[in-house]
Structures
1.
Amino acid sequence: MPDQTITSVSRESRVFKPSAEFKAQANLGSEVTYKRLYKESVNSPEKFWAKQANELLEWRKPFKKVLNWKVPHAKWFADGTLNVSENCLDRHLGTPLENKAAIIFEGEPGDIQTLTYKQLHREVCKFANGLQSLGMKKGDRAAIYMPMVPEAAIAMLACARIGVIHTVIFGGYSAESIKDRVNDCEAKLVITSDGGWRRGKIIELKATVDAALKKGVKCVEHVIVHQRTSNKVTMKKKRDIWWHDLMADSSSEHKAKAFAAENPLFVLYTSGSTGKPKGVLHTSAGYLLGTTITSKYVFDLKETDIYWCTADIGWITGHSYVVYGPLSNGATVLMYEGAPNHPEPDRFWDIIDRHGVTIFYTAPTAIRAFMRWGDDYVKKYSLKSLRLLGSVGEPINPEAWMWYHRMIGKKRCPIVDTWWQTETGAIMVTPLPGVTPAKPGSCAVPFFGVVPKILDETGQEVPKGEGGRLFLTQAWPSMLRTLWGDDDRFKKQYWSEIKGIYFAGDGARFDEDGYLWVVGRIDDVLNVSGHRIGTAEVESVLVAHPKVAEAAVVGRPDDLKGSALVCFVTLKSDKAASDDLKQALRVHVAKEIGAFARPDSIRFAPALPKTRSGKIMRRILKDIAAGVEVKGDITTLEDIKVVAALQASD
């Protein structure tokens, strides 16, 4: 049998126990409560989820059957009906929440807008009526390509209100990417803006949509254009409609339609290994339940919280933890349009202090950027309003966790390091604040109903401390239902590795305390001279060096070793690159992991290739490391000039 051991260096001895003060007010309360509820959720899942669905959601028609499960297809609460938009808005009307802020928006130029639940409901109703006036109905698809503005959430909630399936496309994607997604789901409508602000410049969104629709898109009947930046745009007669004109003629009264629990809510495209985007399909009740319950317990939401998730609305984190989960709980959500370092790298800390943000949820790539920019930008602000921090998007290396804990949380805020995916819909593994002792770099323990297992290629569980492949062995409400128009790919990609259980695609291990450590995508686990090495762990070792701010590690084909380790390293702003430092970093990695993990190449670079959402585009680094031409769409890069600098860095 091939060696499936994934070398792991994360033997974390630092443990941070919940404070008595936080524990006393936590929604979940105690580890005893967590263990009792978790045991019930995995041993009697239908009983557990029936209770949660009845307590946390508003139903038009109660369900009788909890789960129909014919692997790999799940139907949750299938005979019940509800409306997702109604659960996020209408049920808060007539309560003290109706005049509470639902969304606090800050634009990059500094404009601020607050929408109460009553006001947000009115805007969603008007837009839902506007969509219906254009002939949009249940089952139709609408593409949303907008900046991070309240109108994007309004568009999503209005679609949900009338049964239109939305597909949100990140506002940095190219015309080609828009074309592929719109054609794949045959969207009848595109909702966009004239532009959006990013580092003081206008990102021309409408022009990109126009270019996409000229590339052979025949399904689109209308384009609705929200005016954000007032840059000049071309409006095509009969097809294009200004948002404000549509709203001017729309009534603010709208009765939400009740839909079956399994009615499709949205399709969200995620990159696939074949290059063709995968349209992940999520349905209504199960998805909403997953995002509602995780928002309540993972973020410990209180009525007084100002909650800020920095994710763009175009990603699953923006769907689940900017819109649906928090609003279903009646939370106040802060939305920010622009870059974290405009006009200065202190923008986030300034926003937190001015708005009194209490919960802050961001990505490890952002945290490492904050570290690189320096502590002085943080020290200007008190950040005293913060009570809970979160991490999402990829494994967080321990040193970044410690900086986050020390500099942003002031050693008093719990950190929820969450593992989940577009496909899972909601958080799967996480520390629970006030309950779970935290280990820097570990996503800790499974959420209710989640049964993770680490298996080798034969399906056998690996011992604690050893790495393998991460699987989820029990159905959960917010799981993806299929891939849009490609059920065969759905079955093959997620359910064929070991029949009957979901393959997450990640390498991971459990430590001796049962804490889960995710080491990255299986694609990023390299075979180096017979050793299986997770690139995420090499990156963590590099970032732990006092001169390193950020690192990305990829493999380069090697005839002798199988794969050679190539490390792209960004130094802290006051540190200088040198051949001596390259050698020191090689020695550092060899000492921490083993001689077999000594990098073959270290390249210093002023920056790494990142999308506007902060995700490192590793395929670009793989092409550069292999010495081949960079392939594929790079228009989502924050700074395209980074690629040329990297190519010259060796």
2.
Amino acid sequence: MEINQSEWTVENSAALYGVDLWGTEYFSINKEGNIDVRLPTSNEKIDLYKLTLDLQERGIRTPLLVRFPGLIRERVQLISSCFNNSISEYGYKGKYTGVFPIKVNQQRHLVEEIVEFGKFSRLGLECGSKPELLVALAYLDTPGAYIICNGFKDQEYIETALLSQKLGRNTIVVVDRAVELDLILAASRKLQIRPRIGFRVKLHAQATGKWNESSGAKSKFGLTPTEMVSGIRKLQEADLIDTLELVHFHVGSQISSIQSIKLSIKEGARYYTELHGLGAKPSIIDVGGGLGIDYDGSSGKSDSSTNYSEQEYANDVVSIIQSICDEKKVPHPDIISESGRSLVAHSSVLIFDVLGINDVSRKSIYHDFSDKDTRLVLDLYDLWQNLKRDSVNEHYNDLLEIKRDIQQLFAYGVLSLEQRAKADDLYWACASKLCDLARNNDEAGDIYWELEKELCDTYFCNFSVFQSLPDSWAVGQIFPVAPIHRLNERPSRRATLADLTCDSDGKLDCFIDTDTEETQKYLEVHELKSDEPYLLGVFLAGAYQETLGDLHNLFGDTDAVHITLGNDGYAVEHFVQGDSVREVLSYVQYSKSEMLERIRKGSESSIQKGTLSRADARLLLKVYEEGLDGYTYLEQEE
């Protein structure tokens, strides 16, 4: 049963958009109908809508990425405390420390913040490439914090990692492919530095979900049992068996089911104890990533969700490793996890404004009709006048037939453009009226949803899916999306969200239905007001999206701000200006000076031909240069 506008509450909005589900303790709706961001440990909060308006007054533009470092601090503390709770409860003899995979978000300010917030627990960094290793060496100076070197490695990468030990860095080079062990041994001999080595295990266990191919027998990285046995022999022959300190495995990213995690931990722990049986003495297990977050609030019923908590994850990791090590009488290892997504996803919100609407629904008809109109148009007009609730199925079938006839007759040249316009007007009016008649009609439920899908609005939004939310397009990742204000009003429209790009895939059209916990093709939205911006937020966008973004239609990075919360309100800690048109063009080898020179030469030619005045040429050059230095997104008039 629908709730009237006068009866709508913020609690209804919280349920509709799932804020209480995916927002956990960090996002809620305040009495004014705006979304609050909150730090649970200090109970400090900020109104996201008021913050956005305030930032716009400072000249910071939408689309806008707002980062909340305080939420990273909360997540670092949460995951560390979960593992420490488990270690204490089970009497586990090893220690826990985390590492943050730089690939999850390589932005410098974020890396600096996560290193600072993780000093209390010796949080380290994981590198998947040589450039990321160079970042880690420069920015991680926490005593005892690990630098874990994964990914494809060449001699320079390995030598840099070995030399970092002389800087006092706690660097372990993981053998992801068998050939890398020979490179490590050669670099060790050349530099006269004893390496610190890890073996990555290629698990048989394979997770389900979007990233399941990063695990299993056919995964890109990891050593087979044969390769591990061969590697142990090489280390023994080189008298370096004691340099094997770590066993690493990875079940995948965003694992929705705790059962998949349990299987991988069991198999990985078996490899750890068996390596002890072969004479190696590793003392660390790196369980990799996989700790997911609940993007859609469905509690593990989709790939974008999880059916476990952070504490349950830690309990299972600790208890399974302990049980298998005790069974084999092997000392409990220290545990490392690489939970990047869980650490930073909550910290970023993408905010953008709605620019306009494509509305196909009709409450009334726009044209006048007479006997001069074609029989098809008059039949459609008669249908519109006589639609009845008890004949929805019959009317719907008639409407589909007439729609087909409209398209065919126009294609054959029988229907004029004017008559086609009248037919279209009537078709959408009939569909809108029929949809209302089918609503809450038990005999017409399927028809109602088909019409709802067809009548759904398109809201044109000031952002690029490809730049800011690439996983939404590439792998169908569902992100929580909601208006950041007007949540004390009942949304009266349904819409898909189209971005600024000219690509038909540049849209958000998959949202969580909190009633069924399935997906739906539209988002409930409010009527646009001419005197007020309508602002939407995409939440949990802090993992992977920024670095993966691409320059489709040459839309660049958005403006970004780091907001810290305190007792006296908030402060803009960092402002990172979004890309200018000039900067984006330089990425694809266009030069500002060359482009200006080409326009200048074209202007001179037009002046000589008499088609362009000198004043207009001067204005053209001024506007062109300002455009090169402007924002790649649409900007509001001053």
3.
Amino acid sequence: MVILGITHPISQDNGACLLIDGKLVAMAEEERFIRIKFAPRIFCTQAVQFCLDYAGITLKDVDYVAVGFDRFLNNIIPNLTGQHVGYGFLTAGFFSIHMTRHMFKIPRTLYKKAPKFINHHISHVNSAFHCSNFDTANILSLDGSGGNNAGFIGYAEGTKLDIYREINNSDSLGHMFSRITKLLGFRPHADEYKVMGLASFGSPDPDGLPFIEWDKQLPYINRKKYRQYRKWIHNVVDPKEPMKKVSQDIAATAQASLEKVALRMLEWGVQKNKSRNLCVSGGIALNCAMNAKLLQSGLIDNIYIQPSSWDSGTALGAAIQVYIDKTGNIPDVGFTNPYWGPEYSNEEIESAIIKSKVTKYRYVENICVETAKILSENKIIGWFQGRLEVGPRALGNRSILGNPQNPKMKDLINLKIKGREPWRPFAPSILEEYASEYLENYHYSPYMMLTFKINPKKINDIISATHVDGTARPQTVSQEINPKFWELINEFRKLTSIPVLLNTSFNLSDEPIVCKPEEAINTFYRCGMDCLVMGNYIVEKTENDYKGSPILKTN
């Protein structure tokens, strides 16, 4: 059975996947192919084609098409009942217009397959629970909106999903956090992680956001107070100066309130079952500080967050649901790693190097040993290996890497390459075997979805990958899951005694993570990276590459 999973083009982050007999074969985001960040409201044409090509099939071989969004009326009608009336009508109107408009972006060839439309949050949940290897789990699915609601609290066991409580769109945590993101001067649906980072500099109001009513077990938003609070922010915040105390405190209060509401939801949910596991899904699941608070609550023992928790993950969740509906069985998805996108051989990499007229490159047999030596010399490396990862975070196959012990490394990467705000942190990638030495209260964290306090004795080892509050958002690297990246970090450890590398995504500001060798080369020459490592090839810059460039000049 061949199932093609796609996102509805109304989505903010579009992508596709392919299941064959219940096993995941390929998965990728559209942004990686068309080079438009997130590919919002764009149908996943090239992601679909990649999945089919990778499997060596055509659309004729596909048995079912699954869409990670419900049908028109199923999204409209629930907004007209059971929540704040005014907001409900506005939301219903929004989805009436946009679903009609974007529905026509789905090609007719796919409509001939009679696509199965799956509830957005059920799709989110499936992509997490059925990849977690948990037998049972508490469920939190939360984002801006999935059409008929903004998420739900529930319980999953086998093929059964119990929805305890839906979260109305008028109480949407995702929409609230995005609105505050915009008022602070950042881009909504894109820069929420900046608010999370900024929060560490501020002091949260102990009473929380003033428009959240805390008198019930499940807090809710007072719409009138919410409007008043937005007006207040507009009057006191300078969007061009996010480091002012008032902006820091607003960010801190928004983050603390998000965590408190999510904890209340978890407390309410775990009372209804005996599971000590939790799956978190939806866009809010990318808030790693919130996830850490849930894990540390004492209410659960284990947590799983799908690395593609944003909208593109609904393509996988919808495909899983269609498999369950058609077979009655749990699919053995095989999601043991995040690497499901395109990959390129040494021959293809060399061809791209030659076509790009690179003047200085070499083939290296033991690429990890050589690259580790370069990193130990405080050089900044572009690392391009294996299959492209899914989700918004680089996890060792399309990464920019540096020495975390160098206290200047964060500023160097920001200045020479990323062009990011200097207060934003970078992440450490750490060998799994050493994680408990560096991270307090360590829990398995392969996807950069949790924050941890760094052992004070180890902070100097990874100073450039540690945030201002002494925390980090690590990727723990397994030899079994990513042997080449593990080997690179291990070779770096042999030279420096530090089993950690600073890791950030291989892209420049406002661009998607690179997909092809040509894109990696292009990015390399447009910024201050010192070396580009692709497969077994090392590309370096010549003096002519530096001349006349304020970014690349060495002095």
4.
Amino acid sequence: MLSDARSVLRKYFGYPDFRPAQRAAVLSVLGGRDTLIVMPTGGGKSLCYQIPALLRPGLTLVVSPLIALMHDQVNGLERRGIAAALVNSTLSSDEIRARLDRAAAGELKLLYVAPERFGSPAFRSAAFDMEIGLVAVDEAHCVSQWGHDFRPSYLRLKRHWDELGRPQLIALTATATPEVRADIVRELGLRDPRVMIRGFDRPNLRWSVRREDRRAEKGRALLEQMDGRAGETAVVYASTRKMVEAATELLRDAGVVAAAYHAGMKREARARVQERWMSGQVPVVVATNAFGMGIDKEDVRRVVHLQMPGSLEAYYQEAGRAGRDGKEAHCVLLHSYGDRFIHEFFIRQSYPPRRIIAAAYRALLDACTAEGGPVPPLNFVARVKGLKSEGELTSALRILNDAGCIENAGAAADCAARWIATPERVEEIVADPGDSSEFSESPAVMAALNGLARISRSGRRRSFRVSLRDVARWLDADIAEARAALDALQRAGLIGWRDEARSSTYRPTRPAQSPDELTVDWERIARLRELDLQKLKRMEGYAFSRGCRRRYLLRYFGETAGWKCGACDRCG
């Protein structure tokens, strides 16, 4: 079994042998056992399921929330001659259907999907026809509410395993405390799993911290980090889009070849930046923290944080993208005393006080009574006494919804659209799509076109509003595929549309309750708030530590280390 795995490793990936932790993980998976792998960034987690995928019969389904990881890994596998594909919201419905058909026909060895994809009845129906032998759940810490990146979509995965014939499971994450590991096993439904934890120590990384309380001082410190290192691959992390743009401009003015990357950019622009960075055309990327997730680039020599992250888990994962090739690399934190207050604001916004949650419930109840049905938050935000921000209201509604006190009654009409084609052209295509090859083989796009024609009276109402939820219902698909269908109609010159992202509507699930009667787990909310504040305190402790940086990090993750590492700003 091990010799076969080594042969595949050498043939497709060019490595002479596995690292010790990889070898044990691959053997566990090939032995048929559910496996939880905790392996730091750069440890080679993906090989732990890619190698078994090539040795086992059937399809390996990889669940990941990271579009960048999907593209990067699928491109890498295809270059090696391995049949792999991804399905996500960047594709049209036709492209998605074609890839699912390939998977069902046994033409793929690995298929990458987002966890939200399981919410699509069309996907679940297609998956029923696939021979799925292994499911790999990446970023598995997202299933834990104790983790640093909790995502509710992960909690819904467990119910789908039986639909898939209960395949073998492998869960992977870069950082997980004992509480998070227990949550992963329970919430994903791993059966008698082998839990494998690789050491967090990476001796090639040099850790350093600089306190710079003024923005100009941080800017000078950033330029010092890049001085004399032209062409050196680096990532600079900033907490906001505005700071990303400012830092990029600062570097460019100093002659550094740099590019910005954040969610405010169009998807195509972000993809171009990533491709140019991967190829070495642009050595420095300044980005928000989503950049780099799952991207396999070994020669990153420097990771600089312009602000202190909210937890050591997040910092270790982001900084750990440096030096994956085992050569010396630098992880630099530029922080200010005020960084803490920014994180405290977001923590308290995420877990608002009991009085705000109760006030949000009462305001929603009054608004629904006055308007005779479910209402969006904007209709009653002004009635919530003591509210400090709309973000606080969003968190209060999430907590009430999770507790079953209110329910999301559906999306409001969240898209503005207008017809570009004439009413006669719309009626012509609806009556006979065969005259237009772009629609004749696309049932999803035709279903969207028919629905839009109905609600706009065959195109005679030139401007109208439509809910993405309704479009998804016409297609029997998810919201992502609804967007793709509208995009296809826009590319064909039939409609113009924009997503205005108005809030969902809410309503109480039962008669009026007093604040004391609300079925909210107040102790749990307080506990989670305190946990996040404790994580922030430990992160701040790292920034202000007078001792060895490496020792501080390793102790946090439950490992021991000597008093001095000789490779940080406190010891070197």
